[in-house]
């Protein structure tokens, strides 16, 4: 991110170094080691970005409503605006609130790291009419299963991006965004329409082109039309539910696949755990379970289509041939010996 050493007005400063991924701000904690327990307890972090008034908050609210079975917390980047100094307040109409330097990214990173590590944090409250943070009040946020970080520039800083498990970009038509911005700033933030239009042309649109739109390339999911796109939001929620319901081992080892439990598998597990089961039955059902594991594992291997000609002259794909052979081995052990059936 551009150096955040001072305020920015109409002239956007483009000098200054970028934070590297090896900097302390890009990791959960300097010189720390992630244990299995910490990985299991880590929440799922979602970043939601997009242009001003694109419908980011609406998308976040819809995700939160549909994930009612899990604890979800929303963190707004707007809460981390820097308070304006007296000389900046005198020229507030020349201040660029859409530039990365308008935000206290260091404090945002610190709060996010604390939430991810399971700590309770205090989120500042920003007054958009006074352009100052409240000195005597804050919003207390507890650790949750899902953390949603929403803001126009949450993808701009690499340190912030590295904390996210999923990045969503809300893509809405510019005319729609302008109309929403006018309505929001005049009704909620006490500004007149002329100042809103002036700031949009002078700061908002250039900042969108320079900072927000280029960050779209980091998104994992792009939602056209924002909150009106119910299909996209439903798919995201379904994916989140799958991730949140994932087996604990899968959260530690990304290459672990857990076979979906069935009545057959649960029944065989019950039998082999019975202390009174006979040796023959224990070997029989253990063998069946092992075959299911091998079959499931083979399904994740790459393969190419091959044709097999049977003695009767029929043509089968190699996959179909193996499936039939495996069925015979699994359900008709008398047709082929146990030594042949062992895969």
TrEMBL record:
Sequence ranges assigned to domain UvrC family homology region profile in this UniProt record: 149-232
Pathway given in the UniProt record: Pyrimidine metabolism; CTP biosynthesis via salvage pathway; CTP from cytidine: step 1/3; Pyrimidine metabolism; UMP biosynthesis via salvage pathway; UMP from uridine: step 1/1
EC numbers on record: 2.7.1.48
Region (Disordered) residue spans: 1-30
A single GO BP: pyrimidine-containing compound salvage
Reaction(s) catalysed (UniProt annotation): cytidine + ATP = CMP + ADP + H(+); uridine + ATP = UMP + ADP + H(+)
Record keyword GTP-binding present: yes
Any one GO molecular function term: excinuclease ABC activity
N-terminal signal peptide: none
Biased composition (Low complexity): 10-30
This protein's UniProt keywords: Allosteric enzyme, ATP-binding, GTP-binding, Kinase, Multifunctional enzyme, Nucleotide-binding, Transferase
InterPro entries the UniProt entry points to: P-loop_NTPase, PRK/URK, PRTase-like, PRTase_dom, Uridine_kinase-like, UvrC_RNase_H_dom
CDD domains in UniProt: UMPK
Recorded family membership: Belongs to the uridine kinase family.
PANTHER family recorded: URIDINE KINASE
Record-given protein name: Uridine kinase
Species in which this protein is naturally found: Pisum sativum
């Amino acid at each position: 991110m551009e150096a955040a050493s001072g305020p920015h007005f109409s002239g956007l400063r483009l000098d200054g170094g970028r934070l590297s991924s090896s900097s302390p701000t890009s990791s959960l904690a300097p010189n720390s080691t992630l244990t299995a327990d910490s990985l299991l307890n880590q929440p799922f972090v979602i970043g939601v970005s997009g242009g001003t008034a694109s419908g980011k908050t609406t998308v976040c609210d819809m995700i939160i409503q549909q994930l009612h079975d899990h604890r979800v917390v929303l963190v707004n980047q707007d809460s981390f605006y820097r308070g304006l100094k007296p000389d900046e307040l005198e020229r507030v109409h020349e201040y660029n609130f859409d530039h990365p330097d308008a935000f206290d990214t260091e404090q945002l990173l610190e709060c996010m790291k604390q939430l991810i590590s399971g700590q309770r944090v205090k989120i500042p409250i920003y007054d958009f009419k006074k352009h100052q943070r409240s000195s005597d009040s804050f919003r207390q946020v507890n650790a949750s299963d899902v953390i949603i970080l929403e803001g126009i520039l949450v993808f701009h800083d690499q340190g912030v991006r590295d904390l996210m498990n999923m990045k969503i970009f809300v893509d809405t038509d510019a005319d729609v965004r302008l109309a929403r911005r006018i309505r929001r700033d005049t009704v909620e933030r006490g500004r007149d329409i002329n100042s809103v239009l002036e700031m949009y042309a002078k700061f908002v649109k250039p900042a969108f082109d320079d900072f927000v739109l280029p960050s779209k390339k980091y998104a994992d999911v792009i939602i056209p039309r924002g909150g009106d796109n119910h299909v996209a939001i439903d798919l995201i929620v379904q994916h989140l539910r799958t991730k949140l319901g994932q087996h604990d081992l899968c959260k530690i080892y990304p290459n672990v696949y857990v076979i979906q439990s069935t009545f057959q598998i649960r029944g065989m597990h019950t039998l082999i755990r019975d202390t009174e089961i006979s040796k023959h039955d224990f070997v029989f059902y253990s063998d069946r379970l092992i075959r299911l594991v091998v079959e499931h594992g083979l399904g994740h291997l790459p393969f190419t289509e091959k044709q097999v000609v049977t003695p009767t002259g029929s043509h089968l794909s190699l996959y179909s041939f193996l499936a039939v052979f495996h069925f015979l081995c699994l359900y008709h052990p008398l047709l082929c010996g146990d030594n042949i059936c062992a895969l």
